[in-house]
Design a protein that fits this description.
It is a single chain. With 206 residues, this protein is an alpha/beta fold. It has a single domain, classed as Rossmann fold. It is built from nine helices and seven strands, in the order βαααααβαββαβαβαβ. A hairpin with a 2-residue loop joins β3 and β4. It starts with a strand and ends in a 12-residue tail after the last strand.
């Protein structure tokens, strides 16, 4: 058995879910600016996440679901996951984004499980609060170790794929580290760098 962990936003999905959610509120540019700095490692991830989610207060849950069910997936995402599973990989997604997007995409893209965050809502409207599995800069590293222990998989049989600063913690626990269209801060931690938006390029490195 082998393990492959993908980031979701800007890796399996072409863009950042929270930026799409900010669009109907007229806040896309403001939120995207914070996202950019967070992914470059210039801001604390937890603080940047809670700040961005607070700006979504008042957005209807139905609108969130509509947006999350119409996100653009990265070219080659489904094909790559299908191929990895045929090679014996368990494929998991870690996302600092949201369950509305990652759980919906699970059946479309074919990965085995997703760990992400939950947007708090009351009476069908976002409150601006958030909680979940991937709230901190260290969350992905913490979770990958627990999953490796659970499945009995070593770092030599682990591949990770991501693009931003909050992926660094999981890169510490895998021998195959793919920086996909990534920020410079993550490329420094990678041993495979792919700069074209085609996830099938990963398969050539196996």
């Amino acid at each position: 058995m082998k393990l492959c962990v993908f980031d979701f936003d800007s890796t399996l999905m072409d863009g950042e879910t929270i930026d799409f959610l900010a669009r109907p509120l007229g806040l896309e540019e403001k939120v995207a600016g914070i996202t950019e700095k967070a992914m470059a490692g210039e801001l604390d991830f937890f603080e940047s996440l809670t700040t961005r989610v607070s700006l979504l207060k008042g957005l209807e849950q139905s609108k969130v679901d509509e947006i999350c069910q119409n996100l653009p997936y990265m070219p080659g995402a489904k094909e790559t996951i299908t191929a990895l599973k045929k090679l014996g990989y368990t494929v998991i997604v870690f996302s600092g984004g949201f369950r509305n997007a990652t759980s919906y995409a699970k059946d479309i893209l074919g990965y085995d499980a997703d760990f992400s965050n939950i947007l708090h809502q009351r009476e069908g409207v976002l409150t601006g609060l958030v909680g979940g599995d991937m709230m901190f800069d260290f969350s992905k590293g913490d979770m990958i170790v627990r999953i490796q222990n659970l499945l009995g998989i070593d770092r030599k049989d682990t591949m990770v794929v991501g693009d931003g600063a909050n992926d660094r913690s999981m890169f510490e626990h895998a021998d195959t580290r793919v920086a996909f269209c990534a920020k410079d801060i993550l490329k420094k931690e990678a041993n495979i760098i792919i700069d074209t938006k085609d996830l099938t390029q990963i398969l050539k490195e196996l």
